[in-house]
Amino acid sequence: MQKYINQLIEDLNKAEANPTEDIEFSNDYEEFVEQMKSIEEATYEPAEKVLGISYIELPPADRLNKQQIQKLMTAILNALSAKGTEVVFPGNAIPVELAYTQLREHFKEGFYATPGWTIDFCSGYCPDCPFKNYCDSCDHKWVMEELKKNRKK
Fold first, then answer.
1. Fewer CB atoms < 10 Å away: N or C end of the chain?
2. Which of 51, 40, 42, 55 lies closest to 18, judged by CA?
3. Rounded to whole angstroms, how far apart are CA atoms 139 and 65?
């Protein structure tokens, strides 16, 4: 399995070495509006096209050891950053297995090919959030009784 993980990391390093060029925003108002409109209307591209790796190629967390997950996560995050997508996990002390599993899910829908996007994993609906035990947003948005009532059993 380690040889396979090394190959995935090598592929992600290739994506990182080929960064997406930042958008040079125009000083002209009409051009700037058009630039913003094109960003807002951007669609997801397949992960394989953006990063060179598809969802199916990424092993589930339970097939990897912690060190493999950490190295794979670092490579994924670096490649995404080079492509203009930042990743922010909601909370603190999130287990790497959980972070990897949730980021891996994004490979199903793909990523934006244009720079300037952030994946923050927050829909604002805390009861179903996989990060609810690590994020303090629940404390600010939900009353505990309401949160418990709305959580999936």
1. C
2. 51
3. 32
User: What six digits make up the tokens of 11?
Assistant: 């592929």
Per-residue tokens: 136: 């303090």
- Name the residue ranges covered by the structural domains of the chain: 2-121, 125-153
Angle between helices 96-109 and 66-82 (to 10 degrees): 50
CB atoms within 10 A of CB 47: 24
Q: pLDDT of 57-101, one tens digit each?
A: 999 999 999 999 999 999 999 999 999 999 999 988 999 999 999
**Cα three-residue angle 118-122-127, rounded to 5 degrees:** 170
In tens, the pLDDT along 90-115 reads 988 999 999 999 999 999 999 988 88
Of 117 and 86, which is predicted with more confidence?
A: 86
Instruction: List all residues 6 or more positions away from 117 whose beta carbon is below 8 Å from its beta carbon.
Output: 84, 85, 86, 111
pTM: 0.85
Cα–Cα distance for residue pair 137/79, rounded to 1 Å: 28
How far apart are alpha carbons 150 and 92 in whole angstroms?
23
Which of helix, strand or coil describes residue 11?
Answer: helix
